[in-house]
Amino acid sequence: MLNLLRKNTIVAGILAIIRVYIGYEFLHAGYGKITSGGFDASGFLKGAIASSTGEHPAVQGWWAKFLEQVALPNADLFSFLVQWGEVLVGIALILGLLTNFATLMGMVMNFSFLFSGTVSTNGQMILLAFFVLVAGANAGKFGVDRYVMPYVRRNFAAKGHHKQGTTSV
Fold it and tell me: In sequence order, what DSSP letters do the residues of 6-68 get, joined into one string?
């Protein structure tokens, strides 16, 4: 099964469709936040923190502490990161550019929304993204990664393997 996901050309085409769908969803959400003018995540954060109490809390206490102590005091930064993160992940996935990294960042955002008590399409997007991530390079086969990844491997992976010359004393 793993070999099928990572090597099959037909599966690469299906993964491209899934990748573009996820990318569109992120781009659409982020673009809407940017163009609406005043996106502010503080209301969402306060709602998530409020959902951490009661008999059956929707948000776990450890996550609510993070939101209360880190995210809410830095709501402006998190607002910026959410809207531009969604746009950049969307563009990267649609183009098939740095597909694995973009998919991973999209999953981080979706898990953050789930941890904050929002269900929406986040679970579905995580499930689809899981297949894209596991497929590795095959998910970007029909995208810009086809041209970018050989360059990245050639120029950046080589820097980790410096040739050691011999020196005479």
Answer: HH-HHHHHHHHHHHHHHHHHHHHHHHHHHHTS---THHHHHHHHHTT-SSS-SS-HHHHHHII
